[in-house]
């Protein structure tokens, strides 16, 4: 079963990546993997950027250990609850359905991370170098901004704060979530919502990439993931708003940095060529 262990989620995610690349390009998804490896081996700039992105993702993984070693015990959850009250509880009460929960959990734990990986595969397959680099830049920006908030502005998930009245609906279909998935995501790593910011980032990049099909896919995914963060009782409305702003900034900055990076690379290449031919 998908929701019994991280192994099941990993297998489902791998299958989802393959399907998303195929749906986004209508080409052989395994060729995208080949092109991706080729790009890593032939472009030092992309290799460096990719390594930085992987490094920041690993830092996020170890953020919980860093947090444990810090003598910092602030909790801003009551302040956030004071701003928005029982919004999430009312949201859950209105939409809760045993048929909807498995679908939203699938998007939250499988599609979300699969789409991030698939984006690189789609843009590599499309030979869209600007958006390959933009994706890496945007992910780095998202996590670089979010991690300090997780360390110094801790906000607990909605369901874990009793006055909120919200329930953790994730457990209805993923009963081992706390044992299997929780080590990857701290209970007080709420503000801003990275599920929101990354989803908005993927949506903006998809819509601006020129790949209309993939733009629709990332938009649908973003809407469902943002819906799920409230439905499952995880994030506050404040988290979503901050995540949306972060995603918009990161995606547009990522595109800008990618274009500047490629322009600098092209100018450097042109300069070398002029030097070479000028010396003949």
UniProtKB/TrEMBL annotation:
Cite the Inositolphosphotransferase Aur1/Ipt1 domain residue spans from the record: 91-250
Q: Does the keyword Transmembrane apply?
A: yes
The UniProt keywords, alphabetically, are:
Membrane, Transmembrane, Transmembrane helix
Keyword Transmembrane in annotation: yes
Which InterPro entries does this UniProt record tie to the protein? Aur1/Ipt1, PAP2/HPO_sf
Please report the name of this protein according to its UniProt entry: Inositolphosphotransferase Aur1/Ipt1 domain-containing protein
Q: Where are the transmembrane segments?
A: 6-25, 46-62, 99-123, 130-153, 186-207, 214-234, 240-262
Top-level taxonomic group:
Bacteria
